[in-house]
Specification:
The protein is mainly α. Helices cover about 80% and strands about 0% of the residues. The chain starts with a helix and ends in a 10-residue tail after the last helix.
Length: about 70
């Protein structure tokens, strides 16, 4: 969970910086910095869950199975 939180902080900082530089608006930069990374962080969390599921099933799969290496 710490990895997800630190990722969110870094992502919000980058999102704010890019949005502010492109728009020149603190309001737009702030809004984008809150909304986009928050959604992306949730997606990242579920992305990790899917990869954990794939790893678990690869461990039980016979050699030459359907999942690529």
């Amino acid at each position: 969970m710490a990895k997800t939180i630190t990722f969110a902080i870094l992502h919000m900082t980058v999102a704010f910086s890019v949005a502010y530089l492109l728009s020149g608006s603190l309001l737009v930069g702030g809004a984008i910095a809150l909304v986009e990374p928050a959604i992306n962080t949730v997606v990242y969390f579920f992305h990790e869950k899917v990869w954990d599921y794939i790893r678990q099933h690869r461990a039980h799969e016979p050699p030459g199975g359907l999942l690529p290496a």
